[in-house]
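Give me structure tokens for this 128-residue protein.
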Amino acid sequence: MQNERDYAIILRMIEHCTRIEEIRERLGNSFEAFAADSVYEDAINMNIFQIGELSNQLSSEFKKNNPEVPWHRIYGIRNVIAHAYVIVDKRTIWETVEKDIPAFRDRLEVFLKPYAEQIVLDPNGREN
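Here you go.
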């Protein structure tokens, strides 16, 4: 990890991926449940929006060093949700939630490993 700011952003992105998983568990893990419930849709869209927004805050160096992640597409879906909300395709969002978010979360966790190995905790669990 290049710097602590990128580390903090990655942690927040993982948090939004986790929220998406929790929403799916709570409100029904099916496209039909998602498509029929505007609250479900809004909750999922807001977390995807936040992931996209955060991706744009990562350092250029971090994104350049990790070109296998489609950073431009991640921010692009944020723009679709933000600016073309009435035409957001529910099926596309659901496929993102079902396929892309779990894989993306796994990739984000890999990014944290080198940084986590550098952290030294005191006996109370705080960073030294």
